[in-house]
Specification:
Number of strands: 4
Shape: globular
Helix content: 55-70%
Strand content: under 5%
Structural class: mainly alpha
Largest sheet: 2 strands, antiparallel
Order of helices and strands: HHEEEEHHHHHH
């Protein structure tokens, strides 16, 4: 149901966006303006208001201290201001604003949605398995998805005795997926379109990867940082140590950087493309062909696929990185 609602929202915003400029042009043609204003002033104000009304894309990826909720026409948006707290003085950093923002709210919504859905599925699975021997309906579909991720993605890449990493990696997948999906919903916001969010996810994953390496390799973990090849002669060993150790360190840092940028860029790019396509309607001052609008709808459909794909890729790469460092001693 969200897809038809979003299409109607876009259509209504486009119609509203054209109504004001046309009204301003009509006033200018007749040399009239309400309240004694000049035709140029009316036209400028109408154009600015029209731009604000049709800007329904950038709020999905930009952060702010207010939420966009369903509202009356012509904008169909009501702005709700979030509480603002006094900044906290952190030693060595300065004043830090811990006030909630739109992306924080939608991260909490995504986490709450994941908890409600997965706990509900677990209870339904236990009930159906106890009565009928197999889950049914939505619980069966979720079980298939979870088992596929565990048996085909996580365990083969993490390696032997990798069950301990399954809860973390499944949590990553569903949290990122729901953040992505909430960004597609009308009046929603894509928290994963905020580089601070993706950076935090990447940093958490980095620490889990390194902790897995320390636990699996013990002192051998140092070989993943300092290159020391005992098969080489001592002079060559020292030379390769000097050359390759910085490369090993950079390699460690590029992995979370790649996770951060890939998720951020892909979730931002889709909305930017939609914004560009909708903007073509106003650039050409015509909606007669409908091509930009149709392309924007198709891009939104593609975004639904990308939401699942990016959650899958983040989980897959995290599994690969954990498996690589656990097998580093080989």
């Amino acid at each position: 149901m969200t897809r038809p609602i979003r299409i109607l929202t876009v259509l209504a915003a486009v119609v509203a966006g054209f109504a004001l400029p046309l009204r301003a042009q009509a006033d200018a043609a007749h040399g009239t303006a309400p309240h004694g204003e000049t035709a140029q002033a009316v036209g400028a104000a109408a154009a600015a208001q029209a731009t604000e009304q049709v800007d329904i894309i950038t709020p999905h990826i930009t952060d702010s201290h207010e939420l966009e909720l369903p509202g009356p026409p012509p904008t169909f948006v009501t702005h709700v201001h979030l509480p603002r707290w006094a900044p906290v003085n952190v030693p060595g950093i300065g004043a830090v604003d811990f006030s909630p923002t739109k992306h924080v709210v939608f991260m909490l919504v995504a986490a709450l949605t994941a908890a409600v859905v997965l706990i509900g599925v677990a209870r339904a699975h236990a009930k159906h398995s106890h009565r009928a021997g197999a889950p049914k309906g939505f619980a069966a579909g979720m079980e298939g998805m979870i088992l596929y991720l565990r048996n085909e993605v996580i365990l083969p890449n993490v390696g032997h005795h990798g069950n301990g990493f399954v809860p973390f990696l499944l949590t990553l997948f569903f949290f990122i997926l729901l953040c992505n999906l909430w960004g597609i919903v009308p009046w929603g916001a894509t928290a994963t379109g905020n580089i601070a969010v993706t950076a935090t996810l990447a940093i958490i994953t980095f620490f889990v990867v390194e902790a897995a390496g320390i636990r699996a390799n013990g002192l051998g973990y140092l070989n993943t940082i300092f290159y020391w090849n005992t098969d080489l002669p001592l002079p060559m060993r020292i030379l390769m140590f000097i050359i390759l150790t910085p490369i090993e360190i950079v390699g460690k840092l590029t992995k979370p950087f790649a996770l951060m940028i890939r998720l951020f860029a892909n979730m931002t790019a889709g909305h930017i493309v939609v914004l560009a396509l909708i903007g073509m309607i106003f650039a050409f001052k015509s909606i007669a062909s409908g091509a930009p609008f149709i392309m924007a709808v198709l891009i939104n459909v593609l975004e639904l696929f990308v939401a699942f794909l990016q959650a899958f890729i983040f989980t897959l790469l995290s599994s690969v990185f954990i498996g690589q460092i656990r097998e580093a001693h080989h």
